[in-house]
Amino acid sequence: MLSAAVAALGGQERAGQVQMAEAVSRALESEEHLLVQAGTGTGKSLGYLVPSLVHDGRVVVATATLALQHQLVERDLPRLVEAVKDQPGVDTSYAVLKGRSNYACLHRIREGVPDDQGALVQMPEGSMGQKVLELRAWAEEEAEQGGSGERDAAPRHTDREWRQVSVGHRDCLGASKCPFGQECFVELAREKAQRSHLIVTNHSLLAIDAIEGVPMIPDYDAVVIDEAHELTARVTQAATDELAVGDVERAARRSQRWVDGSEADDLADAAGALRDAIDASTPGRFEQLPQQLGDALELVRDAARTCLSAYPREQKEAGEGGDAGRAQARGSVQEVFTTAERMAGLSEHDVLWLNEGGQAGASRIPPRLHVAPLQVWGPMRDKLLSEKTVVFTSATLMLGGDFNNVATGVGLKPSERVDVGSDVTGSGALPWRGIDVGSPFDYGQQAILYVARHLPPPGRDGLAQAQLDEIVDLVDAADGRTLGLFSSRRAAEAAAEAVRERLPHLTTLAQGDAQLPELAKQFVSDPHTCLFGTLTLWQGLDVPGETCQLVLIDRIPFPRPDDPLMSARQRAADKAGGNGFMQVAATHAALLMAQGAGRLIRTTSDRGVVAVLDPRLATARYGGFLKASLPPMWTTTDPAVVRKALARLAAG
């Protein structure tokens, strides 16, 4: 069936794609977990979509990014279904499920949402008001024509504008109480998913459903996790809670209308105690909960619990916005209670820290408490891998040359790997296989890895003059055509300024100069352009062709030493007898470097250089582990060789 699908789509069958499809099919049939590394250009979407369609049970496909989700739903699946629709016994039904806030809310659009005092929020003025009117008209048209009401299909808008026509789970009345429940885009999406064989969703929704235990997805037999290198970060994000003084104050304010006694005032008083405790605390990670902060969190927890119990069982006041206002108010108190309870009872399995806030433009961001799981492999093993068959796939799963780091991170044990001859018949064993189906690219011929061994090691004060000189020389040799991946916004801006000053004939763009899609479009349209930026560019940019012939990486992207979660995980690994630096920091860096280097070669005709300006890649003991995580490029430390190669490429 794969060959028929590829032929119908006008593509060319690749050996890696066939190998992947066979491995996925075997994993689904044998109920063994699978890790499959499939390099860029393999055609891995078809490699798992075809076996998923022919599998007897329902399969969920989870992606990390909306871009891939959009590609699957708008391009790959419709074309695949058209190609195989005449195949006997194949259920080609599919649906997409996203978080609630990704859909327009008809209740908010038609009746508004009450503010903190219960009055209906008025239409914003000016251009924002006009845009909201346009979004409302679009949503009504979607409802009338049976559309999805998804944000991706909406007229162009900002995040702030979209919030005027959508709600999160906390503010939703629920289908049974909402007067528009029968038309609700979210409910209709769930109903369609219930009737579908294949469901496309995202990592976060999968985590909430499978790990948090909140039913979001119809029952399924197996799951394919694409962009699986992102999974642990997305699961961590989904399981992270935050609390600021303003959250408690807002919950107390919203409760004033619905609670007759002093319970809302008591919650406001608890917010004051939390403010005093935060002001007295030092930003950073708390290895032990400070007494004052612990007391304040307990006070908030108890006041929120009492306030919740004071809410009337049935709505006492009819009138405009009643049901929505009450649901919104009670939901905010419930969220405060749940988070304060988790923080006050700080478990050894959680990490708690305080960030110091700061400025965002003209507005000040207040300090916030954060609590996140120390690790996610345990819950993933217990609540996902023990219940379902899981296929993990990505272009980047083998770090340091094997699957063990990624497998361990998601809850699989190296000793359970089937194809290494291990005995995995014991109780609780979760057998898995790992395969690398390779890449259609010849990295040894198409790409050079240049390590600037002669440069000084990077310091804490940003880019040194020697690094700036190296960047200018390389960009000059490439005549633009450069994607610069930097460890900080400050470094990216410093490099951009140096190139603009010394190579004024080139166009040099820095992240923040405009929205990323606009920057990417400009980068692609003119080869004599450089684009410098940070983490967003490391993983999300696809620029094949002569546009990108040089990828610059300023330093090995280890996590910051003061990163609360990473430092806690590293310390825990050391305490357990492992090597925390290699298991956490080096693995994190290897993953990002592999993703960054992957920006260079996107087609079989691409040629270019990945230049790493950090000599530790060549000199440090961990350099071999990092290089083994990169594509097998031809490697040199000679700057003259690299400049000549770039000049030849630029000359065409």
UniProtKB/TrEMBL annotation:
Q: Which residues form the Helicase ATP-binding domain?
A: 3-296
Q: Which InterPro entries match?
A: ATP-dep_Helicase_C, DEAD/DEAH_box_helicase_dom, DinG/Rad3-like, Helic_SF1/SF2_ATP-bd_DinG/Rad3, Helicase_ATP-bd, P-loop_NTPase
What's its EC?
5.6.2.3
- UniProt catalytic activity: ATP + H2O = ADP + phosphate + H(+)
The name this protein carries in UniProt is: DNA 5'-3' helicase
Give the source species.
Answer: Nocardioides kribbensis
* Bias kind Basic and acidic residues: ranges: 149-159
Q: Which cofactor does it need?
A: [4Fe-4S] cluster
Ordered alphabetically, the record's keywords are: ATP-binding, Helicase, Hydrolase, Nucleotide-binding
Q: Where on the tree of life does the source sit, at the highest rank? A: Bacteria
In residue numbers, the region (Disordered) covers 140-159, 312-331
